[in-house]
Structures are given as C-alpha cells and as structure tokens.
Amino acid sequence: MTTSIDIKRVEKSKISSVDFDNLPFGSVYSDHMLTCDYKNGKWQSPKIEPFAPFSLDPSAKIFHYGQSIFEGMKAYKDAEENILLFRPTDNCKRLNKSAERLVIPPIPEEIFMDGLKALLEVDSDWIPKNEGSSLYVRPFMFATGNGFHASPADAYKFVICTAPSGAYFGGKVKVLIEERYARAANGGVGYAKAGGNYAAQFYPTQLAIEKGYNQVIWTDDNTHQFIEEAGAMNIFIRINDTLITSPTSDRILDGITRKSILQIAEDNGIATEVRKISVGEDVEAAKSGSLKEMFGAGTAAVISPIAGFGYQENDFDLPELENPYAAKLKKLITDIQTNKSEDPYGWRVFV
Ligand SMILES: Cc1ncc(COP(=O)(O)O)c(C=O)c1O
C-alpha cells in the first residue's frame, strides 16, 4: 500500500449491539468510514474516522445541482477468515466514468483501492460470515463546494461507508413493464451511477407498488417497446434455453454482475445473446410458454428471480422450474465471490 492514511479509531465499538443473525440490508453501519477531500485542485490524503454525520454548508452544490455519484459492492469473509472483494477495480473505473459525466474530479485508483482495503482491515469484524450475508460497501462522491450558480463545484468529498447486510430481497418479485416513464434517456446519465437517476425511479416505482407490483421494468424512453433494466438491476430473460440481456447503452448501467453472469453462463454451456428485447417478444414468449425465466442481476440481490409481470392491464406468470438458470448462476457466481470454488477469471481480490 502506498497511500498514507490517517486512522482515528472509535473509542468504543458498537458491534456488540448488532444481531448478525438478523441483518437488514444496508441500514446498520460499521464503526468507521473512509473520507477524502478534494480541494485546491487536488485530492488530499484520505482518513479513516468514526462513522459520523457530515457538516455541510447549505449552499453546497450537492443540495442544489445534484453532483452526487456512488458505487455498490460487497466484501466477504471465507472459511479461513480471508477478506475478499469481487472485481473492485471495475467499481472504481465505473465511479470515475460517472464522475466524468457529472464533472466531478476522478478519484485516483490508488486512493480508492488502498483506502478500501485499509477500511476493511480496520472494520474486519463487521464482515458477516453467515451464508447470504456480506459487508455491503458504499463508495460515493459529492460536491461540497458552494454557490448558487449552476456550475460544477470546486470541492468534493469521496467517502466509503460499509454496512453488514443480509440478503437483499426475500422471495420472487412481480414486476410492471413501464409504458410511460423512463429512468434514463439517450444522451443522458443512465449509464452513470448518479444519485438523481434513482430519485427519478421512485415515483414510477411508487405507482407500480400501488398497483400491487414490487418493481418496474424500464423500457426505452423513446418507444417504450424495448426492455432495458429491472428496477436498479440489469435484466435477463430466458426464452427456451437461451439467456438474453439488453446491450448496454447511454441508458443502461454496465453492471458487473451482468457481465460476470454472461461469462459464467457461456462457460457453463448456457447459450447467451446480448441484443435488444422487445416487450412484444417477451409477451408472446410468455403466451406461448417459451418464456422460462426473467431475473434481475446486480450486486445487492445478485440474482432476483421474477415471478410474473404486468403489461397493459394483463398479468403473466412465469413457470416454477425445478432447476432454473437463476439458481444455478447465482450459486456459480456467489461461490466464486466467497472463495468456495475456483476463480478461473481472476475476479477475486484478497485484502
Ligand atoms: C440501474 C442499475 N442497473 C444495474 C445495476 C447492477 O450493477 P452491478 O452488477 O454492478 O451491481 C445497478 C447497481 O447495482 C444499477 O443501479
């Protein structure tokens, strides 16, 4: 490690108050956080300090112009207590891709990786070992520089917080194919993990929940004829024995789970196709019985199977399969992530 990091530890850990057998997702936080300020045109030395609120000027640009981006990743502990990360430099690269789009200065990969590893070592007792649980890691950056003028800030903060977490979703979800709203548009910021993208999802999602669904399937903003993402996850559909996912674009996040699943599926004899999926094709496949599975893929849930979908006032159920691809692929990927199987791809990073 070459980055010098100042470490200020908590006086008393709060870990004994946490029930590791009943962890929620993302709402219990570990003792420490990593922070690093950007000012005077450069990133300063990172610090590890007790998890605590920030103090910000009301004129900080984050509140007015939404310069805010984040990442989501997980850390695991294997049977020998080794700490593992999954493709972490991809998260750093994606954060910097988001940063470029929001005119936030990129965080040097060294600060990201050294800071992350140091934080995980300091809070290593917070990494759950129970099956399905993990330490959810949330790196983020936002504008702390101030001014009521719509232009990029001159100061930013990079932070990494962690949250010991249980499984993200329980059970299968029912989704609604969106026909009116869009989460992203051509030329927009859909491919970035910008906070505002998620704010834009809340209202249509709330309407879908009021209609009895759990999530929205996003379609393209122009025609609403093509399936693009499932909530805050990439989408896969299985027609007969072929697994299909939409190509990434301006509007779709280049998911690390998505690209890992594509690779693992291909290497395990599952035919894959990366191509546009029309809503009509999905509906026709559901009617004819060739639609076998639909699932969302993302770091939080890994794979979230879809039980059925609604479209234009009609509901379609998916079959209950004995050996779905969703379960097979979830096992293959989580076994790599948690060091229970070989990692032929070199995706695992030991801390
Ligand atoms: C909109 C969106 N799509 C897809 C994903 C999946 O990406 P990843 O697999 O890198 O977590 C995420 C984030 O988790 C997301 O926010």
| Gap from first CA to last CA | 11 Å
Q: Report Rg.
A: 21 Å
Mean pLDDT: 96
Order of helices and strands: EEEEHEEEHHEEEHEEEEHEEHEEEHE
Number of strands: 20
**Residue ranges: pLDDT <50 for 5 or more in a row?**
none
Principal-axis shape equals globular
How helical, in percent, are the residues? 10-25%
- What is the percentage of strand-forming residues? 25-35%
Alpha-beta content class: alpha+beta
Can you give a write-up of this model?
Helix content is 24%, strand content 30%. The protein is of the alpha+beta class and 351 residues long. A hairpin with a 6-residue loop joins strand 11 and strand 12. Helix 5 packs across helix 7. The longest helix is centred in the middle third of the chain and has 16 residues. Pyridoxal-5'-phosphate (PLP) binds next to strand 13 and helix 5.
